[in-house]
Amino acid sequence: MIRAAALSTLLLLSIAGPAGASALPEGADQSLRAGLPWISVTLDPDGESARIHAAIDIPAPAERIWKAMTDCRYAAKLVTSVTRCRVLQQGAGWDIREHVTKGNLFLPTLRNVFRSDYEPYRRIRFRRVDGDLKTMEGQWGLAAFNEGRWTRVTYQNRLSAKIIAPPMAVRAGLRKDTPKVLVNLRDVAAGGE
Fold first, then answer.
1. Strand, helix or coil for residue 175
2. Backbone phi, then psi, for 127, in 5-degree steps?
3. What is the mean pLDDT of each run of 10 residues along the chain (193 residues)?
4. What's the pLDDT at 22?
5. Which CATH number covers residue 125?
């Protein structure tokens, strides 16, 4: 279970919006209207990788949320186990970042290197480049609503790690930790930090 929780902290790195984008599944809007994050975690048939879909509505403009998501100074506030975030390479509309998370008695320090391709204030597509994950590919989406004062942040990721953990433990860890990351993002962005 500890390994699964540590794996899920690597989520820092969506596709539906309140209007015009693909719809979220039934029940998602109810959670979002209640101010709660929505999350779905399913395992691929091979049992090695998990698919995460999640969303949260944040009372802040997309530009402020974007800053929190793309500035390494906020990485440890969003994913509390991150001990290092640094940009290794960058170009027009993309970068390659390294995140390192702290280890513990049961799990070593984990290193994750990923490329992000940016569509400012709208979408971040990411994929694994190197590190301790076996698979990581997905995207974050931002869709403004309520005259731009609120933003729906959506998240999709296909994730697997080079660790051995029971599939149920992985799914439980991701279901527990993904909402924490989304709530932390909401708190940082809504607080204007």
1. helix
2. -155, 150
3. 42 37 76 93 82 95 96 94 96 97 75 97 97 93 96 94 64 79 94 66
4. 46
5. 3.30.530.20
Contacts of 71 (CB under 8 A, 6+ apart): none
β-partners of residue 89 are: 96
The sheet carrying 94-101 orders its strands as 38-43, 50-58, 150-161, 133-145, 123-131, 110-119, 94-101, 82-91
Residue 38 lies in domain:
2-191
Torsion angle of the four alpha carbons 56, 59, 62, 66, in this order, in degrees rounded to the nearest 10? -70
8 token code pair = 């899920």
Assigned token pair, 140: 């974050």
Q: Is 146 exposed, middle or buried (0-12, 13-18, 19+ CB in 10 A)?
A: exposed
Give the pTM.
0.84
Beta pairing partners, 95: 90, 116
Count CA atoms within 13 Å of residue 18 on its CB side.
17
Q: What is the dihedral of CA 72, 78, 79, 83, to 10 degrees?
A: 40
